[in-house]
Amino acid sequence: MRIVIIGAGPAGYEAALVAAQYGAEVTLVETDGAGGNCVLYDCVPSKTFIASAGGRTAVREADQLGIQVSINEVDVDIARVHARVSALAMAQSNDIRSGLLAAGVTMLSGHARFVDESTGLALHNVEVTALDGSIINLQAEAVLIATGASPRVLPTAIPDGERILTWRQVYSLSELPEHLIIVGSGVTGAEFASAYTELGVRVTLVSSRDRVLPHEDADAAAVIEEVFDNRGVTLVKHARADLVEREGDQVRVTLADGRKIVGSHCLMTVGSVPNTVDLGLEKVGIVTGPGGFIPVDRVSRTSVAGIYAAGDCTGVLMLASVAAMQGRIAMWHFLGDGVPPLRLKTVSANVFTHPEIATVGISQAEADAGLVPCRVLMLPLATNPRAKMLGLRYGFVKIFVRPATGIVVGGVVVGPEASELILPMALAVQNRLTAKNLAYTFSVYPSLTGSITELGRQLMHFDGDLG
Ligand SMILES: Cc1cc2nc3c(=O)[nH]c(=O)nc-3n(C[C@H](O)[C@H](O)[C@H](O)COP(=O)(O)OP(=O)(O)OC[C@H]3O[C@@H](n4cnc5c(N)ncnc54)[C@H](O)[C@@H]3O)c2cc1C
Ligand SMILES: NC(=O)c1ccc[n+]([C@@H]2O[C@H](COP(=O)([O-])OP(=O)(O)OC[C@H]3O[C@@H](n4cnc5c(N)ncnc54)[C@H](O)[C@@H]3O)[C@@H](O)[C@H]2O)c1
């Protein structure tokens, strides 16, 4: 079987590894580097940057533990931080490339597009234009589109890479911004606001809504707002940026209601657009949906036989983990393996603010709307002995269980390393464990996960026959 994969982000490279494992002849085409935007520009660089920012916070927070280091004595060598970000991304990309080559995947560098002469063909034709302009034609029984997404650019706020920036451009700054205005308070905006304040930068966060992180758990977002407030972030709510312009060494952001904010730099985090233009989709008869995303079903099939799509270009859920799973599912499906369709209800995700917000399963908003009947219990970390020892001031664990059976259907953790602490909840949701199962599980004493087993104990009497 010949398979062509367009795009070497998590969706594309994970799919390539699966297909190669099954003995398929796999060609992976990528305009940039292995690992895609995820590894080179988005997820991996931002999380590496956030790790450095956390180093300064550890010093700032040491005082309450009786360790005295003046925060004014802490120097941030931003050139080294940025160099580390770039080096780590490149190393990760090289690792992925080596893994793909070792698995027998053929890697082609260039821009791929469909060139089928008519729709409805059993074999699809992909043309690859290399950087030097040379052209290679490929034919395949199956094609996976895994072309990802790019930062959304507003026509009235064009990034110049110096003062008006996308999140991909911040690592080329030679100095930390004096006053950073961040437009957009979704996950990307909140993560950068958190990291820059940790580095001691003055931040103004422009939110189009009444709160930060409008799509996240409201209790968790309230914690982040309180933390931001304590760190001196100016949060401008109900504010839509209409115009962002440079004035010498400054940037002026004009809001829809006429208010103006002046800062040294502006970071635009207003979402992403799918990379689905110039792919020749019309040649194969794929029609994109709202926002330009490629519609797919739960086994990653597009409307055209033999063509699959996975990852950010589908807009299903813009996470690396989901992209990778969609890509693997596409290959398992095409190569004839029995495959369970994608289940979004078991996806765990994390916002890498400080503290972090991790979630799995159903959300508070779905519970409040009555979409899923459930009992909700929340425990502040302040009651947890380990949290007290660590001097943690913020955070909580929250669980959602079915009322009659006690089956765990969702959870939220706000705290340090919440991305790690969510796993017991994710295991519970994935395997339909009950509150009683959690209650009977040994957690280490003292530990933050002790609060998760405590949630189980407080809810176990709802377990009924399944306990
Ligand atoms: C700032 C930021 C931080 C993030 N942090 C996280 C996180 O912590 N955890 C998480 O799970 N997710 C995170 N995400 C989301 C995650 O990065 C994406 O969900 C993930 O990158 C999607 O992977 P993908 O394979 O669909 O596409 P991408 O990673 O975007 O890769 C697509 C690749 O396709 C290539 N391509 C496009 N068109 C063509 C063509 N015609 N021919 C050849 N190649 C082509 C591109 O060059 C690109 O390399 C973050 C996103 C952002 C913006
Ligand atoms: N840790 C992670 O897993 C992680 C990190 C970053 C991004 N992501 C994923 O990437 C996707 C995109 O997230 P995102 O935060 O980049 O985008 P987003 O679309 O979620 O948020 C962008 C925000 O900008 C606002 N906005 C748009 N135009 C505006 C304007 N003119 N003025 C003010 N505000 C404006 C929107 O209302 C929205 O709230 C999400 O699915 C997210 O899960 C994940």
Automatic annotation (TrEMBL):
FAD binds at residues 47, 312. Residues 349-454 form the Pyridine nucleotide-disulphide oxidoreductase dimerisation domain. Binds 1 FAD per subunit. It holds the Pfam family Pyr_redox_dim. Disulfide bonds join 38-43. Residues 1-327 form the FAD/NAD(P)-binding domain. It comes from the Bacteria. Its cofactor is FAD. GO terms for molecular function: flavin adenine dinucleotide binding; NAD(P)H dehydrogenase (quinone) activity. NAD(+) binds at residues 184-191, 271. The keyword Nucleotide-binding applies. Keywords: FAD, Flavoprotein, NAD, Nucleotide-binding. Belongs to the class-I pyridine nucleotide-disulfide oxidoreductase family. This is NAD(P)H-quinone dehydrogenase. It comes from Nakamurella antarctica.
